[in-house]
Amino acid sequence: MENPSDSSKRSFFRHFKHFESRHLYVLLLSVFVIFATIFSYYYERRQDLSVGDIVPYDLSSPVTVPYYNRIKTEELRQKAEENVPIIYRKNPLIFNAIKEELDFLYKAVQAERRVASKNLQEKILEITKHLGSNANASQVAGFLLQADDSNLELVFSSINQIMATILDKGLQEADLADISIIIDKRIQESTLAEALRLPVIVIATQKIRSNMSIDEDATNRQKEEARQKIVPVRETIIQNEIIVEKGKPITPETYDKLLAVGRIGENQLWQEALKAMIYALLILLMLLLFLLLQNTKHPTQENWKKYLLLFSLVSLFMLLVRFIAPLNQFLIPVFIFAILIRVFFEPALSFYFVAVLTLISLHLFGVDYLLISSYLLSSMLAMVFYSRLKTFTDFLVKSFYSSATLALLTFLLLCYLPESIFYNSKLIITSLLFFNGLIASLLSLGIVVLLGYYADFVTPLRLFELSDPNSPLLRKLFETAPGTYQHSIMIANLASHAADAIGADPLFARVGSYYHDIGKTISPLSFTENSSGKNLLDEMEPMEAVKVIKSHVEYGLILAKKYRLPSCIHRFISSHHGDNRISFMYESAKKTDKSIIDDRDFRYPGPKPILKEVSIVMLADSVEAAVRSLEEKTQENLEEMVSKIIDNKINSNQLNDSELTFSDLQIIKHSFLFTLDSLYHVRLSYPPAPAGSSSS
């Protein structure tokens, strides 16, 4: 019994069975190309701009993001703050101070009135000093010195009363400019004699002052409350919206917008490089994991050219999107990538790769989310269209369908998402995308043809071309070895139906059947199907005859290279006999030479078939040859013969390397019998009828 841990290790590492150093080099090169592509985009977009700088080209938003407009919000808050009234606080000490000054003036006047040593003019000068610079100060001083006690008392009491009234309501600093008018109005409302009014006005105007001071704390609290009530101005920056036009200066508001969308920032260069490397590794890791989790005989891992093509397409697609997307988002050749991946690779891999690359790359390089949705959905549908590719006309028709799908999807999305920046250009954008899809599809057709001819990639178009009876090599086979040609046609019918039944490629099996025996054109009469009577091999020594029989494999490969057949067709030529023993010649040789024991010289060179389609052709080849030799082609005979041939191939280890399962072999057996029944109109063999009965 083996250790379970050893088994699990082998189960994991078997995924790396076909992973060689050259695969690693391609992977590392792809990582570098994708990293350089993303980093160059970040570096190019990295702007060291500040407020007031003139921009060298249009700066647009790479994404749709919510944005809080700091400048507009601050303007609204300042207006709200300005609208807050100033809060004042009354100072009761001011009135007391004014009363003390009035008392002092009253006592000074009384003192001067009692002084006998001074004349009136000297007394007036002394009192005038207390009344300030008023033009009527001397006149008022003279009145105060000469008035009787009752009038003097009345003047000062009136001033006190007016002061109390005015200051009780509160007098602000700004009101002092009109204080004489305010005082005069109060006097007019009183019954004060005319002669007393001027002294009251002059003294009150000179002594009064503001008793209201600004309450800074209360005012600031009110202003802050008013600011907080203003909700920040929220805007949405639409993807591809031009924030600053070329030649315009950067304002504080546009600077904030550029900062919000990432067009400017304080990221250092190494941070941009790290982000680009993370994206590159993420993309390659997602793709590589999908490959490694496939079956160990996955054709992409086995086929070095396909592996190289796959990662070349990935890198090239990233480069195209990087340089085209900033110029025009409607001309990104997504269809070229989608069609090439679908034509050359199996469905699961192609759908996965296209979905991952389209989503990540288009988002990375600033493509609008609406267009990403259109490109992704339409490319998926295009891949469904191209899954049944047959002819060049079919390719062109599906190109039109794919382009129309892209245009229609975008048009519908534009109608249902009017907030898009492209909403006002629906018809122009729809037309651009239609022609984008059409041109990309036609370009992909050219690439498919070139890769098929010059890079040895097999495609449905190439296979259909090779299946044309007028192709040079099939024409040569028909003219030189008509029996082998008919034999190949029969095998093609058997193999293609069986391949279709087990989910293999029927077209591949059919074309491989057509060319598997082209080597027999070197000596067609040496093979039974081409000789109408005597076989040339009958006149040869067994060893010589064996060399002629085996030579059709070698010569077939020479012809395949000469006529530039795809290398996958070479497998049918070299492997349709595996390393089977040529038993008839071996037995004949043993009869003439008893010393012959080793049968290596009597075996085909191989190798044994691996692909399902090649294995089916091997079985069909033996079945067709055996059917021709049957005298009675009854259902029982055919079933026995087919079972015997399949069992013989299993017992002789010819299917050891094949991808076929036992379940596949059962399906193939039934398919062969169904096809043979259709070809030969086989009927059941019935037991002899009793005497006297009639036969149908």
Describe what is shown at a glance.
The protein is mainly α and 696 residues long. The strands form 3 sheets. The chain has a two-stranded antiparallel ribbon. Strands 2-5 form a two-stranded antiparallel ribbon. A two-stranded antiparallel ribbon has the order 3-4.
Please give the structural blueprint.
Blueprint: H1 4-13, H2 21-45, E1 59-60, E2 65-69, H3 70-82, E3 88-90, H4 93-114, H5 120-128, H6 137-146, H7 149-169, H8 179-189, H9 194-207, E4 212-214, H10 216-228, E5 233-237, E6 242-244, H11 252-261, H12 269-292, H13 299-302, H14 304-324, H15 334-344, H16 347-364, H17 369-385, H18 392-416, H19 426-454, H20 460-466, H21 472-480, H22 482-502, H23 506-515, H24 542-562, H25 567-575, H26 583-592, H27 612-629, H28 635-651, H29 662-680
Antiparallel strand pairs: 1-6, 2-5, 3-4
Helix pairs in contact: 2-12, 2-14, 3-10, 4-6, 4-7, 5-6, 6-9, 7-9, 8-9, 12-16, 14-15, 15-16, 15-17, 15-19, 16-17, 17-18, 18-19, 21-22, 22-23, 22-27, 22-29, 23-25, 23-27, 24-25, 24-26, 27-28, 28-29
Report on the structure:
With 696 residues, the chain is mostly helical. It is built from 29 helices and six strands. The protein has helices at 4-13, 21-45, 70-82, 93-114, 120-128, 137-146, 149-169, 179-189, 194-207, 216-228, 252-261, 269-292, 299-302, 304-324, 334-344, 347-364, 369-385, 392-416, 426-454, 460-466, 472-480, 482-502, 506-515, 542-562, 567-575, 583-592, 612-629, 635-651, 662-680, and strands spanning 59-60, 65-69, 88-90, 212-214, 233-237, 242-244. A two-stranded antiparallel ribbon has the order 1-6. The chain has a two-stranded antiparallel sheet with strand order 2-5. A two-stranded antiparallel sheet has the order 3-4. Helix 17 (369-385) packs antiparallel against helix 18, helix 27 crosses helix 28 (635-651) and helix 28 runs antiparallel to helix 29 (662-680). Residues 1-16, 295-299 and 683-696 have low confidence and may be disordered.
